[in-house]
Amino acid sequence: MLDELKKLRKNIDVLDKKFIKLITKRLKIVTEIGKIKKKHGLSIHDPIREKKMLSSRCEEAKLNGVSSCLVKDLLKRIMRESYFNENQEGFKKICLNLRPIIIIGGLGKMGQLFNKMLKLSGYKVHILEKNDWHNAKKILNNPMMVIVSIPVLLVKPIILKLSSLPKDCILIDLTSIKHRPLNVMLNVHSGPVLGLHPMFGPECKNLVKQLIIVCHGRYPEKYEWFLEQMRIWGVKLYVVNAIQHDYYMNFIQILRYFITFSYGLNFLEEDVNLKKMLDLSSPIYHIEIAMIGRFFNQNPELYADIMMSSGNNIFFIKRYYKILSKLITILEKKDKEKFIDYFKKIKTWFKSYAKKLSKKSDDILGQLNDNI
Amino acid sequence: MLDELKKLRKNIDVLDKKFIKLITKRLKIVTEIGKIKKKHGLSIHDPIREKKMLSSRCEEAKLNGVSSCLVKDLLKRIMRESYFNENQEGFKKICLNLRPIIIIGGLGKMGQLFNKMLKLSGYKVHILEKNDWHNAKKILNNPMMVIVSIPVLLVKPIILKLSSLPKDCILIDLTSIKHRPLNVMLNVHSGPVLGLHPMFGPECKNLVKQLIIVCHGRYPEKYEWFLEQMRIWGVKLYVVNAIQHDYYMNFIQILRYFITFSYGLNFLEEDVNLKKMLDLSSPIYHIEIAMIGRFFNQNPELYADIMMSSGNNIFFIKRYYKILSKLITILEKKDKEKFIDYFKKIKTWFKSYAKKLSKKSDDILGQLNDNI
């Protein structure tokens, strides 16, 4: 009886070994593809090929009576690894100009990431760190591009020091706010200016499918090559104006940091038992706790600066705080009617995306559950 | 040149097709395994086998020069599908008593799920719905178990109607609060009493690795078979006392619902453009928006009842609200020192779990990124 089970499990083990062999082969081919892509300056991420490939595999899955969802998830996971493998081959250098790129704050985590990607693409990169300013004239000698990757509060004073860059030098900042830094850059430098906001952490190992928000400054034709270079890295670029960018970041960053911080502070002050809380949690809450923990594992200065960098943030948070107070009143009065009324209005607000978001959250929950 | 790329991509397509064939075979074997497990009453989820299998595959991956993380993720995803396939075979019936099980509220979503699982395990299940109470005496004729699966506000009045159950009948509720319902059950019924809280949505297709919290009521030896039955379904059981359960649910449910609701209300009142917000979002925020959207796609009554069911909730939320106000003061005063001080204290609070949680969040972010 249990021999029967053992036998079947052995069969599964044999299949799984074949599986690993297949993956090994696949990743080797992918390395070859990486070489060709590098040679021809093709982007590491080809969404059209990806979509076509996935949909024909899904068709085949259906013909075999296997869930196409399953096949899609598996292939996507393998592709993530593949992109990483292609990465190792480096990237085609788009701009053949011989002058170097300077990263100010190049030893910070994000600075290091750009440094790595630029070097993988064949550029000469110099770094200008806190203690290098006495030597700045030498380091900043005729660069083709200067990338400012420093804490938000230092952006203005540092950029003000960059008044004598060559006229054709491209000046770029990576701050998570865009309107003011962009204006400072435009005032200080008369050449090409570009604001970027990388929407990922510096711990990213490859940039495929990662989002960088682009706020154009001046002479976009002069830095178009750099956008193309990032596309080759696999980055997804999204262009928006700086004021809109800053407005949306209230939701996407400021409010999230505020809530995450408050959750952490609540845990601390309620002195809850973390082990027990994790034991009692469903996968969704596991991820929430993990994300809160992740936040507090980062640099507090960075978040203090972002949160305190603008009076607008406080203004925005206070508006949100009023909404919380409204909600508390509803709960306190047990005003079920109002609760349901708002609930339905918000549902309507989500309307056209509800189905898509619901599917997405199903996928996520499934994946979370795999990892318990 | 591009012919070269085409050729390699064709090779990949060939491998991927082999891949699908392998998965098809594997799932067929799994169906066979399901039959054996059913026959012998083995749990659909065997964590020891799973762990052993994964670790030897990871070893083999390493030997092949492939990331063991990759192999682990792939096998876990395949196993999720496998559990679903094993599910189809039904489950061994643990309790051979011939009397039926009654689900009060059995047409609600969670009631339906339990109905399905019990029937797949060979039990006779009757349902008692809102409109069946005139017929209750007949339906409630000598049941071996009564499961109360109804909105939280109705739990007390409904349980009060169950005063004449047979002495050996097991009385169970599935509410998301446990202390008071459990007491009501203990007062009304003198036989075995059990409080359960399923930590998953009723849309779950199989219960493997899903968590059900167990609050013992009375005569646990009488309902041990039912706990065993759920283990066979693959459920993970966690025993805690009802008061502790309710305390932790303040964090795991009440506070989350409160914040989720407030986020939605904030979107509504700020009248933000959802499309643009999604375009500008990184994967983490995508998932947050998806989860908020998911919340508002559910039944508002349910959440109103949970939130308003207890004065304790309000008390707890108000304590949290004070923390928010403290945080606002810190931001408004630009009190960086205090900000960093709290930040570090919270980091310390997370201490022993920081690494584990950080790894978990890395995995999650990777997966999220696959799905863009």
UniProtKB/TrEMBL annotation, chains A, B:
Pathway: Amino-acid biosynthesis; L-tyrosine biosynthesis; (4-hydroxyphenyl)pyruvate from prephenate (NAD(+) route): step 1/1; Metabolic intermediate biosynthesis; prephenate biosynthesis; prephenate from chorismate: step 1/1. It comes from the Bacteria. Residues 99-361 form the Prephenate/arogenate dehydrogenase domain. GO terms for molecular function: chorismate mutase activity; NAD+ binding; prephenate dehydrogenase (NAD+) activity; prephenate dehydrogenase (NADP+) activity. This is T-protein. GO terms for cellular component: cytoplasm. Keywords: Amino-acid biosynthesis, Aromatic amino acid biosynthesis, Cytoplasm, Isomerase, NAD, Oxidoreductase, Tyrosine biosynthesis. InterPro entries: 6-PGluconate_DH-like_C_sf, Chor_mut/prephenate_DH_T, Chorismate_II_sf, CM_dom_sf, CM_II_prokaryot, NAD(P)-bd_dom_sf, PDH_C, PDH_N. It holds the Pfam family CM_2. SMART domains: CM_2 (SM00830). GO terms for biological process: chorismate metabolic process; tyrosine biosynthetic process. Residues 1-90 form the Chorismate mutase domain. It is found in: Cytoplasm. Its main location: cytoplasm.
